[in-house]
Amino acid sequence: MIVAIDGPAGAGKSTIAHRVAEELDFQLIDTGAIYRTVAYRALEDGKDLDSPEEVATLAASLHLDFERNDDGENVLYCDGEPMGNEIRTPHVTRASSQISSIPAVRQALLGIQRELGKRESSVLEGRDIGTVVFPDAEAKIFLTASREVRAHRRLDQMKERGMDGDLDEVLAEIVDRDRRDMERDIAPLKKADDAVEIDTSELEIEDVVQRILEVVEEKK
Ligand code: C5P
């Protein structure tokens, strides 16, 4: 079974998808981590981010896999190396948004996302899971929240990871990323027609989790 959870940055996807996967005992695939890893490696290897060929060739050459660690978390490995906070810096965040609009990069990452998702029942979180990666997913959720709420959440998340941040800057970055994600020609961020939309602005995490579990139960 595939549970697709899409939505913009800061809508609560990571925390909620994590809890849903835990409740269902499904594997969690964070597809944003895949785009972030390509961006991180492109920066590390000195690739020209404005060159679609260079970045797409790199994306196709990487060996990406998820493995469960002792805490039951699905960690992304790139060429045998576990990916951690190095893919969560503001620099990598901006670069991931940039490289994710390259069609050949998305194409290179499509197969791997499908392969990983088909290995076992999965919760996949991203931007285009319900529309492109798994259009036949049994359960599709589209999470939203106001920009202000999302900016506050991002800031809290950065602080938890020991990073500094400024609310106005985070808000500007979110607005910019939303625009890029929604306006790109290929696989733009949008709600699938058959997705259930949940505005998380005023809701507690556990309420959202329960609502998603109900949707999953109905589709089982
Ligand atoms: O979800 P997260 O913020 O980690 O994603 C990082 C970037 O990767 C996003 O800004 C988005 O541009 C891109 N992305 C994407 N499609 C996905 C997941 C993430 O384009 N399925």
Q: Characteristics of this structure?
A:
three-stranded antiparallel β-sheet, ATP-binding, 9 helices, binds cytidine-5'-monophosphate, 220 residues, 52% helix, 8 strands, transferase
Oligomer: single chain
CATH class: Alpha Beta
What strand order characterises the main sheet?
Answer: 2-6-1-7-8
The name of the CATH architecture is 3-Layer(aba) Sandwich
Would you tell me the overall average pLDDT?
95
Count of discrete structural domains: 1
Strand content: 15-25%
Enumerate the distinct ligands.
cytidine-5'-monophosphate
Shape: globular
Give the CA-CA distance, first to last residue. 8 Å
CATH topology: Rossmann fold
How many beta-strand elements? 8
**What would CATH call the homologous superfamily?**
P-loop containing nucleotide triphosphate hydrolases
Q: Give the helices and strands as they follow along the chain.
A: EHEHHEEEHHEHEHHEH
How much helical structure, as a percent, in the residues? 40-55%
- Poorly predicted regions are none
Protein name: Cytidylate kinase
Enzyme class: transferase
Subcellular location: Cytoplasm
Family: Belongs to the cytidylate kinase family. Type 1 subfamily.
What does this entry look like structurally?
Keywords: ATP-binding, Cytoplasm, Kinase, Nucleotide-binding, Transferase. Residues 3-217 form the Cytidylate kinase domain. Its EC number is 2.7.4.25. By secondary structure, the chain is an alpha/beta fold. The protein has a single domain (2-209), classed as 3-Layer(aba) Sandwich (Rossmann fold). 52% of the residues lie in helices and 16% in strands. It contains nine helices and eight strands. The radius of gyration is 16 Å and the shape is globular. The site of cytidine-5'-monophosphate has 13 residues, from helix 2, helix 4 and helix 8. Cytidine-5'-monophosphate binds at residues 9, 31-32, 35-36, 96-97, 100, 126-128, 177, 181.
